[in-house]
Amino acid sequence: KTAKDGATSKVYAKFGVEIYAAAKQGEPDPESNSALKFVIERAKQAQVPKHVIDKAIDKAKGGGDETFVQGRYEGFGPNGSMVIAETLTSNVNRTIANIRTIFNKKGGNIGAAGAVSYMFDNTGVIVFKGTDPDHIFEILLDAEVDVRDVTEEEGNIVIYTEATDLHKGIAALKAAGITEFSTTELEMIAQSEVELSPEDLEIFEGLVDAL
């Protein structure tokens, strides 16, 4: 249960940051901010509670006494593995200190800004049940969605889009009658992979879990 609760909290936190960012970059009203509207739809699909969504929007409006700042911290794990941690905090100094401590205690090394992010591509990822990637590719192409790849994996269609076209891709699929998605999110996808021994994998997972 503890592991499940931890995973759920990470999902809530991830959407909290995304909702905050979308609301900050435009109007904090989903009816006039399509990016925010799509993020909220995805959050609801991931069963994020309404109070978590409302709190993120309230932060973006400047609700409460605290000011929240987005941050990105980069570093290295065992055997050249790379880690990017994105944060939303009201106390930047405390957050930096906490992240530095976690890297040091969990077998990693924190790096400078840009140390590893150039090795990742910010990518839109859409996953749903299906077995005909060619047909899906045509739908997205007709809608002028910038698609990197469409594959079929174990009965699921997996779509990779340019980050800026994630919402456009979701809208095109919905217009084609596809409404049930298991994944609709932005992911930092590594351009290459490193192989970790069982021992290094345990260290890496411990570092990521702590972050």
UniProtKB/TrEMBL annotation:
Superkingdom in the source lineage: Bacteria
Domain TACO1/YebC-like N-terminal: 1-63
Pfam families in the cross-refs: TACO1_YebC_N, Transcrip_reg
InterPro entries noted in UniProt: Integrase-like_N (IPR017856), TACO1_YebC-like_2nd/3rd_dom (IPR048300), TACO1_YebC_N (IPR049083), Transcrip_reg_TACO1-like (IPR002876), Transcrip_reg_TACO1-like_dom3 (IPR026564), YebC-like (IPR029072)
Every TACO1/YebC-like second and third domain range: 72-211
UniProt entry keywords in alphabetical sequence: Cytoplasm, DNA-binding, Transcription, Transcription regulation
Alphabetized Gene3D superfamilies for the sequence: 1.10.10.200, 3.30.70.980
A GO CC term attached to the entry: cytosol
SUPFAM superfamilies: YebC-like (SSF75625)
UniProt GO MF annotations: DNA binding
Cited NCBIfam families: PRK12378.1
Cross-referenced PANTHER family: TRANSLATIONAL ACTIVATOR OF CYTOCHROME C OXIDASE 1 (PTHR12532)
The family this protein is said to belong to: Belongs to the TACO1 family.
Protein name per the record: YebC/PmpR family DNA-binding transcriptional regulator
